């Protein structure tokens, strides 16, 4: 099996998050979530090598969120660390891993920060995340906290569950006991997880290449040193141990990757290694799937890429003029023509459409975790069933402005919403919907509401007009709508622009709503 990333995913077939050795697509400002999603698009060489009124409806229902007919559905199954106050922005999750007992290991940001769009050259000073590791039980309750959280602020983690260790990385690296989260060891190295071994390297060394070593994840004791493998500064190795292969982004001007035998005394056994040597972009999606491109960027378009079976080199699908693999700060996944379309890396089929960019994706385990717009996370699980997205009749009760709302918001209009101007419209079965503060935007239209009872997904479609003359003032237009009695229970709500229109700022957002 193989993995590429020290702190992202162990090699269990999970989707793994990206470091600079693979293609990285960070969402542009027009696609920024009100959760902690990256706000810039960068493509560097290292990234190459490695977006009451009358009831309304949208007409006929259609299938959604299923890889194919009868293949099952991805159902909203609950939340983790939901804020008690829907007007707040707390319990923001930076990273998450499921455990075999149904629990979770998470990195929570103790200082979450969001920025409104700015007409200036900068959104203000950089504010680093202040992460701390938590362990949750199967009910979502916190049962352990990272010790010494004030002196160490991780942002991501890699799990060695059988060894009882979680490796937390950020401002340094620490091995934590999985059950108590007490510190076992510290280092300035980072760790690529391959089965029960940590391959430690030094991406921040000031005199590259740094050391490359195989270590025990429980004690961090040295098993063997591998000095023949040269890992440059700010690069991350990909390790395909089944084929005795380590791939490292090259600093050379005449090729893109360096290839090493993990065991220098044995040959590399990957059958298609000669073809792989000509790649300009290599990115692992799982232990048996990779995205590979052999084209450059000189043609003024995205280079074609191929979904490839790692064991044989068989091309499963080819993608033209688009980036097929997307990486946020938290997850890496295969995407369709639009970023919200999550493809199954086994066969490139459409698995589900997401209302926001995920924190965690595993087709092997049938789990997707999504950040929520006011903090916490939603769990989506693959289950047997058949989905159908149906139009929902809704009534607009009132519209106005909410000066205290900065970012996209969907919440119950039950008197708890922080919007005095619309407080009189509070009632059961009503939602307050706001697109947040956008420069020059003072109103929007809700064009449709759809519901899928099998997936427990509710979608609110919005049309935002052209911005008026820019001014320094920003307001948050809002509406209160009423939903029918037929909608009950817990729903995952996505706020989406009309089909075929660009996503305004903030429209990568999901919320959990309980309609009783």
Could you characterize what this model shows?
With 516 residues, the protein is mainly beta. It contains 2 helices and 37 strands. The chain has a 5-stranded mixed sheet with strand order 29-33-34-36-37, with no helix packed on it. Strands 1-15-16-17 form a 4-stranded antiparallel sheet, with no helix packed on it. The chain starts with a strand and ends with a strand. The N terminus is likely disordered.
Q: Which ranges are low-confidence, i.e. pLDDT below 50, for 5 or more consecutive residues?
A: 1-70
| Strand count | 37
- Name the assembly state: single chain
- Main sheet: strand order: 29-33-34-36-37
What structural category arises from helix and sheet content? Answer: mainly beta
Q: What is the share of helical residues? A: under 10%
* Overall average pLDDT: 83
Give the biggest sheet.
Answer: 5 strands, mixed
The percent range for strand residues is: 35-45%
Described by the principal axes of the CA atoms, the overall outline is globular
**Helix segment count?**
2
- Gyration radius, rounded: 23 Å
State the end-to-end CA separation: 47 Å
Which terms would index this structure?
516 residues; mainly beta; five-stranded mixed β-sheet; four-stranded antiparallel β-sheet; 2 helices; disordered N terminus
């Amino acid at each position: 099996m193989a993995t590429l990333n020290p702190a992202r995913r162990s090699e269990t077939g999970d989707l793994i998050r990206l470091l600079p050795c693979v293609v990285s697509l960070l969402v542009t400002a027009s696609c920024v979530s009100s959760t902690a999603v990256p706000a810039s698009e960068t493509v560097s060489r290292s990234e190459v090598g490695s977006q009451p009124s009358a009831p309304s409806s949208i007409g006929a229902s259609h299938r959604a969120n299923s890889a194919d007919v009868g293949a099952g559905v991805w159902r909203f199954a609950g939340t983790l660390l939901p804020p008690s106050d829907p007007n707040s922005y707390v319990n923001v999750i930076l990273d998450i891993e499921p455990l075999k007992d149904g629990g979770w290991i998470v990195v929570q940001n103790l200082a979450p920060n969001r920025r409104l769009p700015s007409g200036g050259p900068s959104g203000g000073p950089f504010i680093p995340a202040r992460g701390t590791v938590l362990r949750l039980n199967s009910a979502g309750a916190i049962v352990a906290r990272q010790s010494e959280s004030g002196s160490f602020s991780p942002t991501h983690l890699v799990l060695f569950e059988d060894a009882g260790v979680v490796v937390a990385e950020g401002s340094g690296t620490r091995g934590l006991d999985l059950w108590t989260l007490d510190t076992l060891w510290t280092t300035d190295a980072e760790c690529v997880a391959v089965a029960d071994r940590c391959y430690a390297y030094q991406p921040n060394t000031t005199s590259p290449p740094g050391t490359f070593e195989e270590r025990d994840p429980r004690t961090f004791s040295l098993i063997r040193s591998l000095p023949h493998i040269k890992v440059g500064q700010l690069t991350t190795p990909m390790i395909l141990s089944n084929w005795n292969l380590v791939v490292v982004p090259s600093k050379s001007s005449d090729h893109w990757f360096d290839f090493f035998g993990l065991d220098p005394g044995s040959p590399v056994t990957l059958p298609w290694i000669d073809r792989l040597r000509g790649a300009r972009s290599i990115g692992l999606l799982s232990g048996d799937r990779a995205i590979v491109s052999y084209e450059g960027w000189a043609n003024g378009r995205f280079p074609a890429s191929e979904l490839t079976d790692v064991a044989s080199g068989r091309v499963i699908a080819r993608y033209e003029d688009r980036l097929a693999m997307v990486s946020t700060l938290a997850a890496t996944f295969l995407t369709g023509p639009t970023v919200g379309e999550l493809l199954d890396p086994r066969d490139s089929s459409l698995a589900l459409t997401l209302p926001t960019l995920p924190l965690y994706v595993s087709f092997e385990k049938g789990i997707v975790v999504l950040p929520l717009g006011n903090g916490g996370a939603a769990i989506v699980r693959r289950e047997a069933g058949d989905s159908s997205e149906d139009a929902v009749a809704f009534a607009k009760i009132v519209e106005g402005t909410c000066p205290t709302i900065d970012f996209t918001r969907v919440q119950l209009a039950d008197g708890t919403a922080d919007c005095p101007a619309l407080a009189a419209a509070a009632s059961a079965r009503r939602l307050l919907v706001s697109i947040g503060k956008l420069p020059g935007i003072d109103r929007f239209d809700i064009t449709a509401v759809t519901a899928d009872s099998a997936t427990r997904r509710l979608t609110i479609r919005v049309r935002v007009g052209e911005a008026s003359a820019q001014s320094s003032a920003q307001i948050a237009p809002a509406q209160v709508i009423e939903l029918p009695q037929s909608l009950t229970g817990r729903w995952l709500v996505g706020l989406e622009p009309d089909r075929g229109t660009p996503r305004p700022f903030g429209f990568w957002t999901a919320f959990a709503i309980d309609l009783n």
